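Bit of a strange request maybe. I'm writing a small parser for structure token strings and I need a real example to test against, not something I typed by hand. Could someone generate the tokens for this chain?
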Amino acid sequence: MKQSYKNMRDFWLDVKNLENRKGVMEIGPDKISVAGVEMAVPDGEEIKYLFLATNSLGDSSLYFENNSKSGIGGVIGGHGYEALQDAAARMLAHASKLTGQMTSAPAGSELPPPSSPAMVRLFAVSKDKLFHIELEESSARNPDNDFYPFFAYSQQAIGFFRQQQAAAPAKEGRA
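Reply from user aminoacidic:
Good idea to test on real output. This should exercise your parser:
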């Protein structure tokens, strides 16, 4: 895992970064403030990671390892893009209902990355705990799986990030 990607990942997994922001809500019995998904993606012989996170303020970010000099790409979204904000809020709400079925660890614990490209890691973060579960992606896509809505909304959010980027005005120097 490239350091720049790990830094952004760790930022989102540390709820202390929300402590001084107004309007932070704690959702569900375990008081979740952040939720998301991480996926492993093959790039030739190398595995790269994609990380999507949202918080209860409506902020969302998508980060991915790439071959750039910095080693990371990303998109910040949420405010002003209603479809993305709605999908992210629904993902967070479903995550808050599923913490009892996830592994829990003290806040600040290391989140294991997905073990292979066939697996996804869903996570939820409160002030006190980090909740996570690794599932086969095919299982997460099964509507009969309890985690299906959580995963499905994460995939919608990723799609909305793509739409947001496609609709953004071209930056100078971008081909």
